[in-house]
Structures are given as structure tokens and as C-alpha cells.
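User: Design a sequence. Structure:
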């Protein structure tokens, strides 16, 4: 059975996390990965994609 791209990414993340001794290092790793992502497209920053249930401003991708 072949794995999906999401399942493969999940497995890679699990393997990456194995090198860290504690959750703070894992958390920092996630933050660092997020900083490498491209900017969120301006055309997606509209009310339709706004998530009102959060205390922080967040836009969901379509």
C-alpha cells in the first residue's frame, strides 16, 4: 500500500523529532520550519477565510 504525501510528511516529521530530547526543542523546530514558508498570499487575506474562533488573528487557506 502506498502512502500519501501527507502521510509521508508526517512520518518524516516524526523521524525529525526523534533527534530532540524535549518538547521545547521540538517546538522551536516547528517555529523555524514556519519561518521558511512563503508569505501568506494577500488575496487570501479576506473575511471569508478568517477564523473568528481564535484569540489570535489567523487566516485559513481556501
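Assistant: Done.
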Amino acid at each position: 500500500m502506498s502512502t500519501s504525501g501527507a502521510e509521508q510528511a508526517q512520518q518524516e516529521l516524526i523521524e525529525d523529532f526523534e533527534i530532540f530530547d524535549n518538547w521545547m526543542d521540538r517546538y522551536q523546530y516547528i517555529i523555524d520550519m514556519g519561518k521558511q514558508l512563503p508569505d501568506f498570499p494577500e488575496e487570501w487575506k479576506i473575511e471569508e477565510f478568517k477564523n473568528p474562533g481564535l484569540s489570535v488573528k489567523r487566516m485559513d487557506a481556501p
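Residues 5-49 form one domain. The CA atoms of residues 6 and 16 lie 15 Å apart.
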